[in-house]
Amino acid sequence: MENRPPAPLERMRIDKWLWAARFYKTRALAAQAIAAGHVRLDGHAVKAARELRCGERLEIALGDVLWSVVVRRLDERRRPAPEAQQLYEESSASRARRMAQKEARLLAPAPGSELRGRPTKKARRQIGRFNQGN
Fold this sequence. Notes:
The chain is of the alpha+beta class. The protein is built from five helices and seven strands. The chain has helices at 14-20, 27-35, 81-84, 92-107, 121-133, and strands at 12-13, 39-41, 44-45, 51-52, 57-62, 65-71, 88-90. The strands form two sheets. It has a five-stranded antiparallel β-sheet. Helix 1 crosses helix 2. The protein is elongated. It starts with 11 loop residues before the first strand and ends with a helix.
């Protein structure tokens, strides 16, 4: 019996590729995002079972961040992040847009983003006084 390397894949389910490329933590989350319309293939909405091929362009909306990538390779297994990044190529416009959004978030964080957990007793009293005044 010969040990041959596996033949390269010609096509693969889009939800499985998004999981393998580490855009989503699980295939179920990838399928939900696809169903919600957050993933577009060549500008068109798709279903999770759609077959993906190399060379196709994806637009992936993760929160307020929009990724524009071209599929370079298909892989059945989920690999470490540096290897997963080799499955796609991000456009330069997409990369510049993401970096600008990242800088804007650092310079002007969302109000209340530093708040964590439940309010303290003092904060509760202040909230109560504020609500009583209205």
